[in-house]
Structures are given as structure tokens and as C-alpha cells.
Amino acid sequence: MKRVIPCLDVKDGRVVKGVNFVDFRDAGDPVEQAAFYDGEGADELVFLDITASQEGRRALSESVRRTARAISIPLIVGGGISSLQDMEAMFEAGASKVSINTAALENPDLVAQAARAFGRERIIVAIDAKRTENADGSTWWEVYSRGGTTATGWEVGRWAAEVYSLGAGEILLTSMDADGTQDGYDNDLNRLVAEKVPIPVTASGGAGRLEHFRDAFLAGKVDAVLAASLFHFRTYSIREVKQYLQAAGIPVRL
Q1: Catalytic site residue from 128, 179, 215, 223
Q2: Buried b / exposed e along 87-103 (16+ C-beta atoms within 10 A)
């Protein structure tokens, strides 16, 4: 079954939505949004504390706890998680899976340690990638850390293969170029990563129309789609998206 996942980008205790990782606007209370999406038929929910890494702290456990209590679906938590102790705190607060990004880039062995300690199916590595042009006009995708502020030099396919070999159970792949634009997912990027690793890949960044979800599965070859703006501002409901996907022959849980 393919999955449809709303994402709560949380800043200062509120859900926000930006464009290209900046220009944030308020999108409500995380607990209220979480309960709404659970009732709407979301397969999972991502709770991302988007300034935790830059501020040198982990996601706020009390906010995670309140969100987890409000839903019956799996909760994925990310933001500033940089140790096994941080992960344990998130699991104790009610997270089903944790997502790490900057910490994995700065200490790749953490992925292996986490997979051994908690099981690889609970460990997601989030990858933020941006298209970069070489002098000869060719392009590649570079991986960024610290909320999309720091270039790492890693090519996205190499980094995806690396984290898979270390023990990541899933990859949450965000196109920084497409983020918040509503112009569609970057399916060249999605397909590159999906064909590189045998673990589930979730596409993030760019959903604007129903066909964008379909194209991510068919052209991008991903296992799940993540969206924020479209759901937060009620452009489409999760049920509408799933009914559209089902009509397009994509297996989803209704």
C-alpha cells in the first residue's frame, strides 16, 4: 500500500509553512491539526521541529507527547535529534519512528547505533537536497544540513546509499527547490534515490495538484508522499487525494 502523510512543521509551538525553507506563515495548533488528519485517514503523521537543529536542541517532548495522545496513527518525529538518548526520549513521548538529518551527516555511525538499538524500521534519515549546476551546465543534487542552510558536498544518491548501508529503514526526501512552491514534486530527484536504495522513500516538497501525488508514485517511484500546505489550508482533503490515487490505479488505504 502507498502512503499519504501530512507534515506538521512546528516552530515556537505552532504549525507553520514556508516556501523554499523561508517565509513562514502560521498554520494552526499541532495537536488540533494532528487529530484532524487522524480522522481524515492519514497513514502516518510527521512532526518536525524545524528550528531545533539550528537552536541546538531536540524536538520538544511535551508537544510531541500531546500530539501522540491525540492520534491513533504512527507519529514520526524529527528535529534536533542527535543521540540515542534523544531518540529514547521521543519514543517515550509517543513517537513511532524518529527522523534524523543533520546528526546523521555529522555522525553517520549514529544511524548504525540507532538501528541496532531500536530496529531499523524505526529509523528514518531525512535528506534535504538542492539542484546544483556545474561549470559545464550539468546538474546534480547536493545534500544540505541544518534546516537547509549548510551545503555538505554529498551527492544525494551516494548519501542515500550510505545511510541505507548503515541501517536506515526509510528515507524522507525533500526537494529544497520544490518546497512550498506547489509546482509538483521533483520526480527526477525522487526516482534517482528510489532506484538507488531498496528501502521506502517518501517524497516531500512541491505538491500543488492531485496529479502531483499520482506522478510522484508513477514517475518518482516513491513509496509515500508527504504534503503540508495543501492539507493545512484545506485545498484538498486526504480522502480526496486517496480517492484520486485509487482511481489512478495506485493502491492506498481508504
Answers
A1: 128
A2: bebbbebbbbbbbbbbb
Q: Is 128 tagged catalytic?
A: yes
Residue 156 in contact with residue 141, Cβ under 8 Å? yes
Nearest to 176 by CA among 194, 197, 152: 152
Per residue in 197-221, pLDDT (tens digit) is 999 999 999 999 999 999 999 999 9
Residue 213's identity, in one-letter code, is: F
The amino acid at residue 67 is T
Of residues 9, 43, 186, 215, which has the active-site annotation?
9
Q: Which of 30-39, 173-182, 208-217, 223-232 reaches the highest mean pLDDT?
A: 208-217
Residue 86 annotated as catalytic: no
CA distances from 236 to 170, 194, 215, 242, 243 (A): 26, 26, 17, 10, 11
Q: Give the whole-angstrom CA distance, residue 14 versus residue 40.
A: 20
| Contact yes or no for 124/115 (Cβ under 8 A) | no
Average pLDDT value for the chain: 92
pLDDT digits (tens, 9 = 90+) for 66-115: 999 999 999 999 988 999 999 999 999 999 999 999 999 999 999 999 99
How many DSSP H helices and E strands does the chain contain?
A: 10, 12
As given in the structure block, the three cell numbers for residue 184 are: 509538483
Q: What pLDDT was estimated at residue 233?
A: 85
Amino acid at 38: D
